[in-house]
Amino acid sequence: MITIGGLTESDRATWENLFAGYNTFYGRTLPADRVDRAWREFAAGERMHALGARLDGELVGIVHFFTHVSTTSDDVCYLQDLFTDEKARGRGAGRALIEAVAGWARARGCVRVYWHTQTSNTTARRLYDQVAVDKGFMQYQIPLDA
Question: What is the pTM of this model?
Fold first, then answer.
């Protein structure tokens, strides 16, 4: 059975492994200070938030998210990172994490939850196409390297 809840200090090592898996999927490795910063932000629970999915008590999925203002609506919620361990895929963890974020955002007056994924991420897109609407936007970036 999948359960969703907050992360605790005892989840740190497993969360780090899942977060590393997420970043590896997108072809990046984060330095330790960036990982530490994220964990501190989640623990503070003010700007960035995290939830975990547990299958039979074992942490098998994570989601990171935050709210922000919008010029055209009330606040919105951005689901930034979502990852489940391969052994848990297809068992409802990803869907449960998305639903938990939507419930969290709804309770705080947000009008929508949105996220990005690569067009080639067909595994995740099968789920996303079931739980959300593809609005057809493309993402552009200007890297601002420090």
Answer: 0.94
